Fold each of these.
Amino acid sequence: MYTTLLTSLDAGIYTITINRPDKLNALNKDVFTDLNTALDEIERNPEIRSVIITGAGPKAFVAGADITEFGGLNKEAAMALAKRGQDIFARIENSSKPIVAAVNGFALGGGCELAMSCHFRIAGENAKFGQPEVNLGLIPGYGGTQRLVQLIGKGKAMELLVSAHMIDANEAKQLGLVNYVTTAETLLDHTRKILEVVNSKAPLAIAGCIKAANAAYDESKDGYALEIEEFGNAFDTDDMKEGVTAFLEKRKANFSGK
Ligand code: COA
């Protein structure tokens, strides 16, 4: 089904592994096509409750956009490429199911942008983050200038953008770019454990949280109004009735996603 991704579904957790280890999992056209198809599958398949995105091999999550595809692009083609990348990463950010980046090495350029479009990030201790585009006479094109500022604040983001300086996993954690740092060996297990907890919660309520939290960063939306609406929507769900009843009956809730 995919030429550049490995996928597996286990206990509601869909793991997507970007699989071009010889090219440090660089994002070429085929990876974008496959990621877009995988996002359709995530939306379509009710057995998928949450998602991990990681990279194949011990060295890289994703070392950026595939630089070999940049040769010969004119301004219009470059803008179309940035739009395509931004659209796919916006689909990740706005997915109603939690998508977590398990960063297992270099997350540079488009790789850092991919990780930042996920709902949150866990890093192996060998992870390295950076936006090295200025080394190539470029700027980030897949949302990096916006999401880096949102996640770590303008001052530090500016420094990383204009210096191409790479930071390690521990500094990324101090800056709030990643939530946890694990050993390289335990990265996927740790990420799965977090998602097992997430998967035991009410799916429609999770979707509501994602939508309302994302609105905090979208000037075209009134996040507080959206929160009121989503809060109200939750009262129309079977899961809210089940959650409240289970609490009162002192038992664990069994959510149906309805
Ligand atoms: N696009 C295309 N190919 C890439 C790539 C990218 N972004 N990043 C790495 N590769 C390829 C290399 O060309 C090399 O291929 P080859 O074996 O056919 O020559 C292979 O992946 C291994 O990379 P290499 O550079 O040999 O590994 P390294 O350990 O010496 O260095 C990096 C690792 C990440 C520091 C280095 O690969 C790098 O700087 N990559 C580009 C990062 C970047 O600028 N990303 C932003 C792009 S906008």
Note: The chain has a mean pLDDT of 98.
Amino acid sequence: MSSRKIIFDTDPGVDDAVAAFMALACPEIDVVGLTSVYGNLPIDITTANALRFVELAGRPDIPVARGADRPLVVDDIGPVPFIHGDNGLGNAPVADPSIELSPLHAAEFIYQMAAANAGEITLVPVGPLTNIALAVRLHPDLPELVHEVVVMGGNAYAPGNASPGGEANMLHDPEAADIVLGEDWPLTMVGLDVTNAVNLDHAQLAAIAAVDSPPNLLLAAAMPFYQAFYEDNLEGFEGLCPHDAVAIAYLLQPELFETVQKPLRVEMHGFGRGKTWAADPYHLTEPNSPWAGRPDVTIATGGDAQAISELIVAELTRADSGSKP
Ligand code: RIB
Ligand code: CA
């Protein structure tokens, strides 16, 4: 089986690191590029972390392109160092990256890679959707060139995590998200409806930390800060939610997920800003339906949370973790 080419669009972030190293370790996935975006931390920090990922995974040949430093329209809601640490990696000690950035902006990198590999690239955005929206607005033929889009973000039926209504990636840039979710391309939204239920428990975190490889040593140093956020704020919770890695799990084993097909809109106003609304049958056909003309999106609504967490751990504890050729 040939491996699946992905561009990983990321705002690292500790769970972004878990996801990136999972994808980089997995032979079924061919990471052809990383693109950075502001989000969990400002763009200088997230970009440096993306460079660190390919370096630590022994893949300095994988290009990294720097992306947007702010949302499309309004001011950003701001970074979250209290969740991911001041350096986005749980305040783990990290060296300066030694490899060079791509000269291309992330949006242009995405388009050029998609054009050069027509029909083969899966976009996996796990941060604000600004780069993807910019790419598709600059190049309206992008959807014809891309194989698929798998987004970590959104909440069709679950409450928000960054506000009462909004999931963090959507709330950073709802205008961009509404563009991306409204394009006519095969798109799956892996959001809080499923990722909230996927937990890496203490034994699983210890198994990941026990692997003596550069990626896992970084994860071992980075995950405790993020874990503490969960355990200090959620009564009775043990471990952490590896949100972004759940999108990688979906690429590998979609059969572990329950899905529905419905159009989505993103709420722009008030305390519901950032909320992803799935079409409901009563309002879908109204003359002024918010979903009029919108394509169906595959929405992950649940899944086998235990099997998904075990898949994430299995990929991160491969004997050759981080050294895939
Ligand atoms: O809501 C979870 C998402 O927000 C993840 O992508 C996490 O990294 C943060 O950006
Ligand atoms: Ca992220």
Note: Strands lie at 4-10, 29-36, 64-65, 121-125, 146-152, 187-190, 257-262, 264-266, 276-278, 297-303.
Amino acid sequence: PDQVNLVRRAYYYAEQAHDGQRRRSGEAYVTHPLAVANILADMHMDHQSLMAAMLHDVIEDTPTSADEIEARFGTRIATVVVEVSDDRSLDKATRKLRQIEHAPHLSPEAKLVKLADKICNLRDILSSPPVHWPLQRQQAYFDWSAQVIAGVRGVHPQLEAVFDTLYARRPDRG
Ligand code: ZN
């Protein structure tokens, strides 16, 4: 159906936009937005949520503009992607603080993407701990993620429980 094609278009767009970028694991970057979209697909979210998930890092991490996403995929999806994008002009510590502050004010769609994104990132750290990340850095990432997710609670209790299960496995003593 058309909706499947729209999601596929978002996937191919993300694949091209992130071309040449890699995850810490060495995989092509697009495996990450794909995993985020898969989490939402498993929860039977609509195609627009899946498209936003596919595209959630293209504004933050590639030269793609919000206008371009809007022209190709519409205002709703562009708005959600902008909502979940850090402002790259800010330093990292400020961006991390902003995520915590902004989480409660996100739209429900953006909260879902944020939740699925953090689930994927905790999973990645647990399944292949970044070799150059000392234990404290991994713990700090888990704790910061939990602070962000505290701001989206109520949007999807089942996914929040998935997050909590991962957080319960927060690395300790390496
Ligand atoms: Zn992401």
Note: The mean pLDDT is 96.
Amino acid sequence: MIRSNDLAGVKSIAIGGHVRPDGDCVCSVMALYHYLKKEIPEAQIDVYLEEPPVVFQILEDIEVIKSEFNTDACYDAFFALDCNEERLGDAQPIFARAKRRINIDHHISNMGCGSEWVVEPEKSSTAELLYEMMDHSLVDEEIAKAIYLGIAHDTGVFRFSNTSPRTMEIAAELLKFGFDFSALIEETYYEKTYLQSQIMGRAILGSVRFMDNRCIVSMVSRRMMEFYCVGPKDLDGIVNQLQGIKGVDCAIFMYETGTLEYKVSMRSNGTVDVSKIAVKFGGGGHVRAAGCMMNGTYHDNINNLSQEIATQLK
Ligand code: AMP
Ligand code: MN
Ligand code: MN
């Protein structure tokens, strides 16, 4: 699907990923960009993605990403990575117009979309899946870096249960390219600005445990974000921090995106299938990490989510 023999006649390509792109999404998009440049040098390749978090400027050619989607271009092929069609945001009409609509993803909640798809939920990340689809003789240091970093982000740096023996083998193969993996991970995953650390502290201080302390929830309002001069991209890592608290089976973090509108992130240690809950509310994800948008008051949303959790814990 990403090899030249399968892309005969394809002269124009677009690559896109999900709204609010995370590490796996940004890195997968860039890895495929670099790879297709080598695999089909004569093709025109455009990348459509919402502006990535600034830390990903560490990736070569990240500036090729177009965050303006007002085009009526019709591409021979559009690759939608790390999401289904609905989550492409404003790139959705460009995808819909493409002659070949190719979907590559690892979300269990994605049934596949477009004209052809590969969705493998057992893969740690879209980056890992892409690597398995590549001709490895074409993989160079830039591609290796992007794949490695995408995997590192979606596995919580090879820590989450989606990390398989094969994930580690791939990481080992990629490390042979000799890039500074330690700096890549430190600067894109662990390092937080002072304000990002402050809002994380604030979110944890304001958290509430319920259901015998097995669940924890916290919320950041628009007013709080204004006070700390931060945006949604600065809230990464808060939900994982909540999930890491001893005794917690399920963590919920939400931030206000509009009037009575919240972006919800859920994490679980496997006791609760948070993907099922997210799907109920129009979102999706994986068993241990999922998300959705919710309308209503903060308390109504918690009530609705906790009912679903309670049903599963029974
Ligand atoms: P988040 O907490 O938003 O970072 O999401 C956790 C996991 O669920 C990631 O793998 C996301 O890609 C996925 N996810 C989040 N929101 C949605 C959604 N609305 N639809 C499908 N998957 C989602
Ligand atoms: Mn993602
Ligand atoms: Mn992913």
Note: The chain has a mean pLDDT of 97.
